[in-house]
Amino acid sequence: MSALSLVPNADRVAADAAALRAPLAIRGLTVSYGQQPAVFSVDMTLRAGAMTAIVGPNGAGKSTLMKAALGIVTPLSGRITAFGAPVELQRHRIAYVPQRASVDWDFPARVIDVVLMGMYRDLGLLGRVRAHHRDFARDCLDRVGMTDFADRQIGQLSGGQQQRVFLARALAQNADLYMLDEPFAGVDAATEKAIIAVLKGLRDEGRTVLVVHHDLATVAEYFDDVLLIATRKVAEGPVTQVFTADNLQATYGGRLATQQIDRLPGAGA
Amino acid sequence: MLWEALTLQLGYNATLVTVGAALLGFAAGVTGTFLFLRKRALVSDAISHATLPGVGLAFLAMVALGGDGRNLAGLLIGSALSAWVGLLAVSFLTRRTRLAEDAAIGAVLSVFFGFGIVLLTVIQSLGAGRQAGLEDFLLGSTAGMLRADALLIAGGGALVLAVVLALRRPLTLVTFDPDYAVARGLPVARLDLLMMGLVMAVTVIGLKVVGLILIVALLIIPPVAARFWSDRSDHVVLLSGAIGAVSAWVGAALSATAPNLPTGPMIVLTAFAIFALSLLAAPGRGVLAAALRQNRFRRRVHMRQGLLALAHGQPIYEGLTLRLLQHAGLVRPDGVPTEAGQARAARALRDEARWAELRAGPGNEAAAALHDGVRDIETVLTQDQIAEIDRRIGGPRGVPG
Amino acid sequence: MGADFVTLSLTPILIGALAAVACALPGNFLVLRRQALIGDAISHVVLPGIVVAFLITGAVATLPMILGAACAALVAVALIEAVRRLGRIEPGAAMGVVFTAMFAGGVLLLEQSDTSSVHLDVEHALYGNLESLIWLDASGWGSLTDPVALAGLPPELGRIALTLVAVALFTGIFWRPLALSTFDEGFARSLGIRTGALGLALVVVSALAAVAAFDAVGSIIVIAMFICPPAAARLMTDRLGAQVGWSVVFAILSAILGYVLAGYGPGWFGLGASVSAAGMIATVSGVILALAAVFGPRRRGAIVAT
Ligand SMILES: Nc1ncnc2c1ncn2[C@@H]1O[C@H](COP(=O)(O)OP(=O)(O)OP(=O)(O)O)[C@@H](O)[C@H]1O
Ligand SMILES: [Mg+2]
Predict the structure, then answer these.
(1) Does residue C177 sit at the B interface (CB-CB below 8 Å)?
(2) Domain range C2-295, its CATH number among 3.60.15.10, 1.10.760.10, 3.30.160.70, 1.10.3470.10
(3) I need a labelling partner for C33 at 20 to 30 A (CA). Which of A48, B75, C93, C127 fits?
(4) Domain of B125, in residue numbers
(5) Residue A64 alpha carbon, nearest atom of ligand 1
(6) CATH number, position B182
(7) How many angstroms separate the Cα of A175 from the Cα of each of A19, A91, A170?
(8) Looking at this predicted complex, what is its ipTM?
(9) Mutation test of the interface with chain C: which of A36, A102, A117, A166, choosing the one with the most C Cβ atoms within 10 A?
């Protein structure tokens, strides 16, 4: 019964104030499609300058959580702040890489055009694309190893190449907080390593990175923190503390065979 | 007068037309359901507009052969042929080019219609008066219809309906579960073709009564309206047929009561009225029911979240949550939980713990899947099962009462 | 190509071409967004719009009718959205329900009111009267610099030119967010682009183009102008700018060729009168699309990797 506090709500709000200045702070978020909550009453606070993974089974609400944080879907309830202010005021500091299936790959645009989309906030409605914009876009493509494909139609790329282009577009946003939804889905090992190197580079520059991740085996290797969700939050914190067999069992339920958890690095105890 | 019309006492022709329209409406409603459930409702729009050049060409051909250009059977055969060509064009554009189906439909319907208009003006220029009647195909007209035409419509409507009803089961199967249909050895491709054939037949027979611009309404509105009342496919199919038949019957009867009530629009507006009623008032999927449910759901979510926040000593940011808690006497105005609030919060916490235990255990996926955040575990599990869970999580802790 | 041409053919061709381009510009985005049939829905509800305007004002005046048509288009779009969202019905079926019902209402109102005395009939609404938009005050090419003759230009010309300017401005200014939200809506929203409002604005601009063009080419054939040139252009290139360029070329080509064929074509077959110019324009745009579908260098889509 120790948790039940008899403190006025205002005092509880005040005590929470410092945490709300995090790159991303979510309080009491519920998102529901119809009568079925996809995310229920989730609280999370992102640690600045860390790489955090969101982990959970299919349909756990990972994408939904990210979309709600970006204001792409409207929540039923909840409060979301980025860097201490409402997300709408901080969009220029946030970059986003959607799950790959969500775009029209037949759209008439070249790779370089897609990367330039990342500079929308700089260019505005009518700003001309100047040489330095192009140079920066090429630089971003270079960082993901896609320079040679700059003039290809985007539909004529492999899945892994498309993912790299998305990452380049996010780099072009030059943000402080990067949110990536399953950047490693359908990507070969070499590309995965390349992407993770870019992300770690961002983290080392002091930026914050949030990634929806499916491969339990690499969580400990790639990430600093982890958020486990299955519609509601199961656990949140440094990988070394919360990425445990018990928490994974609670996240995946009967779906995850026990021996599979035992094989995970860091799940020894 | 309306009563006489509804009870078929306005003469032989009007009766034939009304009965024919009702049969056609039933067939259209049933056929349209298959289209609607496959999300291809507007293919019928392409088909119906594509009939126009066929009407014009058939007229020209019949005149060239020295016959009467206005022979309804001949015109309908022509319209069916050109509708078929239109359908092929839609499927060519979607399959063989990168264009999506909506663009293909729009292109075909407008181009065929445009070409049809060109042909109508050609016919006009051949000699005044001779084309009289062809414009009726745009909006439909049953006034002054020949006995033979009325018979053709009634007979055609009955025939299409018979075919649709006979093939209801395989068509339903193909619509809802194509894979299973293949596994069962059904000729899926041929049934697909047959479905399009039925759509065409409905369109062609309806041309004279409803007109080519509005005939799609008979294929689209009844299934959409029926869908509000049931989730069972066989019910939707029959209900849609019934709505189509009633709309056509009432519409045709209304139109027979006065000279300036055109048949097609009357039928469509009747169907639309049934649709509007369904949209608003249907239990379950209707708008009013859904809004009430959504509101209730919203409150339950806020309530539950508020209780959990109290239990965890977390701040509450949502005004609605605080108001609901306060209104239920669970918190004081300053947000401190009352006695009752503490009890409810503890119980919510215990429910969460029980759910978590249920999820973590193996073999409980089915029950765990019911966990939507607002459902109490008591509604899903038996007392014995709950007791078993409580034994594992250490029993109720500090829950008063 | 003398004085006759200027008097009888120049203005209809100009109006046809301007209308075609005004529809093709937003049509490019509608086709890319899989909303091509919005053009279908809008053009069907133009008829009830003008009928209601006529019933309210009691006269066949242009401005109220354009306003009425524009209002009807807005009502239709709102209804479609409402039916789609509230009833959770797929967009195609929602459109089908709304536009057929509104069109039926329009026809019924038309039959109920005594409009036989005025020039307001269904056929006119359906296939326009491009041929009648002639420049009576013109006496030859010289009239193009004669202020008196210029004052006698059909008012439809000015209207459609103005509409085209508005449509072109909209497309130009919002090019970037339109492209972005069409390609990747989620990303666009994460940038703060109000994709819902933008989509609605696109539909409203399309409605504007449809209403202005409807005067010239009739309501059904407007659909051909929305869809055929952009669809054909889609099969020619993989660059958005180039696609829009191609669509403008195709639109102008359809208008000119269609008008010429309609006016002079029947003579080649020994028929006296001309045939419907609007119908012929739609037919030509369809032939262009068919050619692009068979020979277009980019007719096949990208193999979408999954
Ligand atoms: N647009 C939508 N309409 C209705 N339900 C949706 C929608 N998007 C997601 N859902 C449902 O919400 C739940 C959460 O979906 P979400 O996409 O967030 O899952 P996820 O964790 O990202 O899964 P995955 O690992 O498969 O990407 C699922 O049950 C899904 O069916
Ligand atoms: Mg996802």
Answers:
(1) no
(2) 1.10.3470.10
(3) C127
(4) 2-278
(5) 18
(6) 1.10.3470.10
(7) 21, 9, 8
(8) 0.91
(9) A117
